[in-house]
Amino acid sequence: EYIFIEETVPKQTLIWLVKKQKSNGCFRRDEKHVDTAQEGREGDQEDIALTAYVVGVFLEVGLNASFPALRNGLYCLEEAFLNGVTNGYTQAILAYVFALAGKEQQAKSLLSILDKSATKTNNMIYWERDEKPETDNSPSFIPSALSGETEKTCYVLLAVLSQDTQDLDYASKIVQWLAQRMNSHGGFSAMQDTTVCLLALTQYMKLTGSNPQNTVTLSSEESEEVFYVNRNKRLLVQHSKVSKGHQQYTVDVEGDGCSFVQATLRYNVPLPKEASGFSLSVKTGKSNSTDEFQTKFELTVTLTYTGARESSGTVLVDVKMLSGFTPVVSSTEELKFNSQVTKTDIKNGHVLFYLENVPKEATSLTFSIEQTNHVANIQPAPVTVHSYKRDEYAFDSYNINSISDSQ
């Protein structure tokens, strides 16, 4: 099924984009990018990465090569290529665009450069960020590869698959790394890298056979379950809940084609003490209620960016509710008037705040929570803050027992 889009919409979008093209064929960015953490999108090569992205979209939708905006955009990218592109992310997206445009020489040259900077281990190939993080001591439940790395790797995969002659053996080693980074919901670190990677994985699936005939058997000492993967079920997620986590499971696959098997283990862990890039504190206080029994409380989350950059870029603050408590929606909605808060959301007992940026000065978010059910022996609830594109994070927890008597 497809979503109908009025024919005038893409035409108006194209007209708007053409107005953003400079005389040298490059596209200009009018607004500051909401997240400066992505490689290739800051500094001298910002316009090149943006132009490559736009030209790539032109080619993907099948615009005629004689279309002026496409032709001029390719000229901008070829000039940048001749002058030398040093940023790894820009090299990756340029390689993909040149491969799409049929410019094999430029694509092969960039892929050769990228191959030299690739990390190759355990029959896998992937690309790390040009800038190394300050610390690698992140907890095990923080993704080891953040959005910049997966997006960069997926653009290389797209470049490899978009050439006239595809090296599927090389591509399979990239796909093997990506498969280990996919989360239990089928995505990666963020919406942007997920979009690019799903396109790359789809291209890989088309080239490696779209008519699988596989029998996948999951067995343990106590049980056995069989899954059938064929043309009719190739996009169907089949799953089974295992009875025990601590036992040996065996997966046997028979047939032709590719099948993706993933095991997901969910468990609770104590909040770690260390932090990287942020300072975070949470305080609870009594509201101005006149009720005999206090049921409403104010929660203040204060965070400061302490990383190496001037500011954090896009940040997510996740406040888990205490057992028996719910947020007062009107108080969370009021925070949308905070210039740094772009969105608030309430999902599954969590209050989520999306911040465009956290500066070096302290930023406070205050809202109300209300006790709707009486629960004995309430345990502390976690609060986390983490950057969308970098492994920068901080953790804290709160409880109603921590209310300051001075408030």
What letter string, H or E per element, gives the SSE order? HHHHHEEHHHEEEEEEEHEEEEE
Which class best fits the helix and strand makeup? alpha+beta
- Unreliable sequence segments: none
Supply the CATH class of the largest domain: Mainly Alpha
Computed over alpha carbons, the radius of gyration is: 25 Å
Mean pLDDT: 86
Describe the main β-sheet briefly: 5 strands, antiparallel
Shape: globular
Number of helices: 9
Q: Bin the helical content.
A: 25-40%
Question: How many separate domains make up the residues?
Answer: 3
Q: Tell me which CATH architecture of the largest domain applies here.
A: Alpha/alpha barrel
Q: Separation of termini?
A: 57 Å
CATH topology of the largest domain: Glycosyltransferase
Pfam family, one: A2M_recep
Protein name: BC048546 protein
Domain Alpha-macroglobulin receptor-binding: 312-398
Overview of this protein structure:
The protein is of the alpha+beta class. The protein has 3 domains: 200 residues, Glycosyltransferase (Alpha/alpha barrel); 44 residues, ubp-family deubiquitinating enzyme fold (Single Sheet), CATH 2.20.210; 125 residues, Immunoglobulin-like. 30% of the residues lie in helices and 22% in strands. The strands form 4 sheets. It has a 5-stranded antiparallel beta sheet with strand order 10-11-8-13-14. A 4-stranded antiparallel beta sheet has the order 6-7-12-9. It has a 3-stranded antiparallel beta sheet with strand order 4-3-5, with no helix packed on it. A hairpin with a 2-residue loop joins strand 1 and strand 2. Helix 2 crosses helix 3. The mean pLDDT is 86. Pfam families: A2M_recep, TED_complement. It comes from Mus musculus. InterPro entries: A-macroglobulin_rcpt-bd, A-macroglobulin_rcpt-bd_sf, A2M/Complement_sys, Alpha-macroglobulin_TED, Terpenoid_cyclase/PrenylTrfase.
